[in-house]
Every structure is written in C-alpha cells, then in structure tokens.
Design goal:
84% helix; mainly alpha; 0% strand
C-alpha cells in the first residue's frame, strides 16, 4: 500500500510537470494522486473496477475543489494530475494482448471493462465541473 502511494504520488507529480503546472503545486498534485489511488484501493475491495473508479473520481473532485479554493487556482490542475493513477492502461494492454492471442471472449471482457472505467473517469470530470459551477453560484449568492 505504501509503495502504491509512493508511485501514485510520483505519477501525479510527473503529470503536473508534463502539463507545466507551477512548481509550487507539484506536491499538491502528487497528493491528489495519492488520494485517488487510496480511494480506488478501498473502493475496489467492495465494488467493481468501474464503480471504484467513479468513487475515486468523486473523492478526487472533492479534494481538488478544496485545494482549488485554498490556493486560488483552477481545480483542473489537480484533477488532471490526480486522475492518472486510475487510468485503465493495464486493461487496454490486456485487451490488445487477448486480441493478439485470438481470445476474443477475453478481448470483449477486458475491452468492456476499459470502456466502463473510461466512462466513469469522464463522469468524474463531469462531477468536478458541476461541483465547481454549484460552488460558484453559491459564492455569488453569498455576496449579494
């Protein structure tokens, strides 16, 4: 678990570097990746991979919105970096490998899982934007 947290931090921080995020936010982006990975690990015990991905995206949304308000930067900085530990790269590899071995039943199974995980990640981004819009409306009503 500790090793997974370390590598999730490393992957998310590296993604922040690749996306040219300001240096002072590298650690926060890495922490978002650790939160996502931890939420996925806990949720995958009780749920399937697509549902665990969705729940970890919701956790990432909450953390990225809190960080966004704390450091006054867009939440997308933290969301894009934090999502990397749960991108279904291994499922896509397994899909291509099963296809190359002419195991079409397994190909469809892995492919469907990868698509469902991708959809749940997209829903996580949707929740992030919807949550940001709700918070923006609450702030404007609070000022009035």
């Amino acid at each position: 678990m500790i090793l997974r947290a370390f590598f999730s931090f490393f992957v998310s921080s590296s993604t922040a570097v690749l996306n040219r995020v300001e240096k002072k936010y590298y650690i926060l982006c890495g922490c978002c990746g650790m939160v996502t990975s931890f939420a996925y690990s806990v949720a995958s015990i009780y749920f399937t991979a697509p549902m665990a991905s969705l729940l970890s995206c919701v956790a990432l949304t909450i953390v990225s919105q809190l960080l966004s308000h704390t450091v006054e930067r867009p939440s997308l900085i933290f969301t894009v970096s934090g999502i990397m530990p749960i991108v279904p790269g291994s499922l896509l590899f397994k899909t291509c490998n099963a296809f190359a071995e002419n195991n079409y039943t397994q190909t469809v199974s892995y492919g469907a899982q990868a698509i469902l995980v991708g959809i749940s990640i997209a829903l996580g981004f949707f929740f992030n934007e919807a949550f940001a819009a709700i918070l923006a409306q609450l702030r404007t009503h609070k000022k009035d």
